[in-house]
Amino acid sequence: MIDHIGLAVTDIARSRAFYEAALAPLGIRTIEVIDPSQTESGGTAVMMGADEIFFVIADNEAIGEGTHVAFRAASRDDVDAFHAAALAAGGRDNGAPGIRKRYHPDYYAAFVHDPDGINVEAVCHLPES
């Protein structure tokens, strides 16, 4: 299952206004805005969704490389297995498995760049068992 998708944008204010207007009829709204001190890229991230976040736009990332898809994992072991398999398949490490407390205390994720440089993530939101 897809957990969330992120896009790099060149002008966060312009893109936020566009997506808020365009997605409102679908029941999608801004849930949270993360300031540059809390993001890995040092840019602003606008987190959108209905009941939970599933779409993110962010600046201060290269268009293309800032494209991001996160797949939801059932366990932390699955995140670890994703990371190992992705590296073995030719992916480049973009963040070893571990907790990302800036998102929430149980956000356990791993990141790789695929062969085209797209950032792919596996994330488990469950506490350690």
Relevant terms:
129 residues; alpha+beta; 2,3-Dihydroxybiphenyl 1,2-Dioxygenase, domain 1; eight-stranded mixed beta sheet; 8 strands; 19% helix
Regions with little confidence, pLDDT below 50 for 5+ residues = none
CATH superfamily of the largest domain: 2,3-Dihydroxybiphenyl 1,2-Dioxygenase, domain 1
Oligomerization: single chain
Sheet with most strands: strand arrangement:
2-3-4-1-5-8-7-6
Description:
This protein is α+β, with helices and mostly antiparallel strands and 129 residues long. It has two domains: 57 residues, 2,3-Dihydroxybiphenyl 1,2-Dioxygenase, domain 1, CATH 3.10.180.10; 52 residues, 2,3-Dihydroxybiphenyl 1,2-Dioxygenase, domain 1 (Roll). The protein contains two helices and eight strands, in the order βαββββαβββ. It has an eight-stranded mixed β-sheet with strand order 2-3-4-1-5-8-7-6, covered by helices on one side. The two termini are 21 Å apart. The mean pLDDT is 90.
